Amino acid sequence: MTIETLAIEGLSTPVSRIGLGTWAIGGWMWGGTDEKESIAVIRRALDSGINLIDTAPVYGFGASEEIVGKALADGYRHKAVIATKVALEWRDGKVFRNSTPERIRHEVEDTLRRLRIDYIDLYQVHWPDSLVPIEETAAVLNDLRKEGKVLALGVSNFSTQQMDVFRRGAPLSTAQPPYNLFERDIDGDVLPYVKQHGLVALAYGALCRGLLAGRIDVNTKFGGDDLRLHDPKFLTPRRGQYVAAVKALDVFARETFGKSVLALAVRWVLDRGPTIALWGARRPAQLDGIEEVFGWRLDANAFAQIDSIVDRYVKDPVGPEFMAPPQRVQVA
Ligand code: NAP
């Protein structure tokens, strides 16, 4: 299998166009985690040439970074491009934004310790914090870059205006927005911006939280604190529309390309621009379809047919906005 790669400004290693997403590996909001399976899936990704691993301190309140750190031991660090994030704080299980320089300075040390590494390849601001000027956040991140603690900088969930401000204070290499064939708000702004400024988009939720893997139906049950218990796409009756669309997309993918809907969904992200699809997986078998993604492309006709299937079945679309964490309450 030849894995497609692309260059990210600031990194000397070409980066695989599929990145392993490790939010679910942290357990929190995904109904728990299994450490052995998690380490196995990270190593399976690295062994098969997927070198980008995306994590964050808030995933499992440190648990995801800890598990990635354990997976990187025994000689795996040199195979990996580690993307993590900064600027979400948590207290008593509640998460809020905090991009102050003090918070960032504190977090970077925690992250390096949990990941058991001495530098971070790509360091991304997780969510914009309206209480802190973006220039201040960019400046401290640029200092960390100059100190060698991080190699490249990215932002996540930023608007184009916010990226403009960030870029005045520090070199910006990547944006990380939500993006999949059901959630495509960035087509109108962030994706053109990424193209115009030579950035790379790390598309999160490439499988739409599992929907586009093709195994979820209207009866699938989610347990514990799984976010899909509250995700408006997964609630009745709307879930029926999305499941019907996935089934029709699966038929289209198999008849036209001899591929699964999962491969079609990842290919869709990759053929939209300078993108990397973040694929959330927490068991090695969930990566079985990776080789199906490479070696073919979607053309304009295929994109149009996909659009018409989505429009035919999804009459009441909804985005991923429910995931946005709150701002801090300003203390006088
Ligand atoms: P996703 O990749 O769209 O979906 C992940 C889920 O899909 C998995 O947990 C799994 O669910 C299911 N899945 C994966 N492979 C499968 C397969 N072969 N067969 C059946 N089901 C399969 O969602 P995501 O994890 O939210 O997004 C990907 C990554 O993007 C995250 O891990 C994180 O790194 C990043 N992200 C970033 C932000 C941000 O604000 N920057 C927000 C969200 C996500 P089950 O294990 O339950 O079966």
UniProtKB/TrEMBL annotation:
Residues covered by the NADP-dependent oxidoreductase domain: 17-310
Matching InterPro entries: AKR, AKR_Detox_Biosynth, NAD(P)_OxRdtase_dom_sf, NADP_OxRdtase_dom
Keywords annotated in UniProt: Oxidoreductase
CDD domains: AKR_AKR11B1
Keyword Repeat: no
Signal peptide: none
SUPFAM superfamilies: NAD(P)-linked oxidoreductase
Bilayer-crossing regions: none
Pfam families, per database record: Aldo_ket_red
PANTHER family linked: NAD(P)-LINKED OXIDOREDUCTASE SUPERFAMILY PROTEIN, NADH-SPECIFIC METHYLGLYOXAL REDUCTASE-RELATED
Protein name: General stress protein
Organism (species): Paraburkholderia solitsugae
Organism lineage: Bacteria, Pseudomonadati, Pseudomonadota, Betaproteobacteria, Burkholderiales
